[in-house]
Amino acid sequence: MKSRLVIRAGVALAGVALLAACSGPTGTNTQNTQNNSSQASGDLKVAVITHGTAGDAFWSVVKVGAEDAAKQLSVGVTYNSDGDPGAQAKLIDNAVSQKVGGIVVSMANPDALKTSIDNAVKAGIPVITINSGSAKSAEFGAMAHVGQEESIAGEEAGKKLKAAGKTKLLCVIHEAGNSGLNQRCDGARSGFGGAVENLQVDISNPTDIEARIKAKLQSDTAVDGVLALNPQVAVNAASAIKGAGSKAQVATFDLNADVVSSIKAGDVLFAVDQQQYQQGYLPIVMLKLFKDNANTLGGGKPVLTGPGFVDKSNVDKVAEYAKNGKR
């Protein structure tokens, strides 16, 4: 079912993508609520509102995807982000007051956004959720969700770590209150079948991330696998392992140029790739199709962008795209 949804979405969107030539990435790292970017002009205005934190390269790729689609389809797109759920809700409220033609929103903390999303739907604004909160997407009135199922992705990551011979796993959660991250660790625990311990860190403090992981590895030498849920954390974890003199190995969720290099160097076993470029790109296309032709995708089920896996067997194939800010 998952593969058919993705293929169906790809076929439907391919014709639209041919309307204009592809353009290169122009995104930069997210900067909380101060980060505004307008791309192209047209009858359709879309507000993309995520929970990305400042300096998180993952969300830069999402932003690039949205901007590329905007340019290709002559859609007006503004991008804003804030890691604080209350502030993110206010961004949604602002978009509703501006009477935008569509809203794309990630829901790391769905309950905090419910009232704002309800108000958008009541105002007749189509909403597409991305990345997090798929379980609440339809309930809140969104027309679709684009992303990966976190529990399933975590389970598959756990299975791969078990197959690699790991016996005790540390799952590093970098955003407190992010339900999707807990789902990843819970899924990994199910797939791994062995001892899995969560470690809470703060994504905005890379030095402390490395120190906390290093301290844990030094105090518990039985840990032989570290599952990061973010590419920046993966790089910090790899450094912590070297600093601790540990034999543990890192796997991670999500991909960027640093993780690609780390996979090539053998410092990271694999990355779970949810192809976040598509999480920015596809909702813009979907809203354009809905406005122009009343088309919808997914049939009430998530349009899945992952999980895929990048390791030494295929890392060279995606390395160029990661370097260009699209993977």
Account of the 3D structure:
It is built from twelve helices and 13 strands. With 327 residues, the protein is of the alpha/beta class. The strands form two sheets. It has a seven-stranded mixed β-sheet with strand order 1-3-2-4-5-6-12, sandwiched between helices. The chain has a six-stranded mixed β-sheet with strand order 8-7-9-10-11-13, with helices on both faces. β5 (127-130), α5 and β6 form a beta-alpha-beta unit. The chain is elongated, with a radius of gyration of 19 Å.
Number of strands: 13
Q: What is the SS-derived class?
A: alpha/beta
Shape designation: elongated
Sheet with the most strands: spatial strand order: 1-3-2-4-5-6-12
Mean of residue pLDDT?
A: 88
Strand content: 15-25%
Order of helices and strands: HEEHEHEHEHEHEHEHEHEHEHEEH
Low-pLDDT parts are 1-34
Radius of gyration: 19 Å
| Biggest β-sheet description | 7 strands, mixed
Distance from N terminus to C terminus (CA atoms, Å) equals: 24 Å
Approximate helicity band: 40-55%
